[in-house]
Design brief:
The chain has 135 residues and is of the alpha+beta class. It contains 3 helices and 8 strands; from the N terminus they run ααβββββββαβ.
Amino acid sequence: MLLKEYEYEKELFQRQTENMGVQRKVRQGLCWYPLHIGRSYFNSLDQQIIEVERTEALDIDHQFEPSKPVCFFEEDASGMLHYMNFVAQVSYVEGDRMVIAMPSSDAVVRVQSANRIGVQLYLPESVPGRAVRRV
């Protein structure tokens, strides 16, 4: 039952973003799009890390903070959003650069190989007791 509720919330969240539009989420500080993907490495806690940097809307305040869950998405040529099937966690944010703890090396490769990629805050109440959860 809990899994069904989570899947429903996830689907609702994705539909809301699609209906609201990425640019509106960017203006609200809930999303960075487009992103420049930087280096990846393992931190001192042996977590797979990836650095991202926002390249537009640099003057807009954002709501990204350490330990908040985030999800990555890719926009295709027709403007449709495609969410990646994992949730990551903000490690820290400094200016227009963010360091994100990733759930796996596969997730890092997926992000690094994407075109037109963005990141947005995810459903914090849907990731109970875990820093990073595969969806």
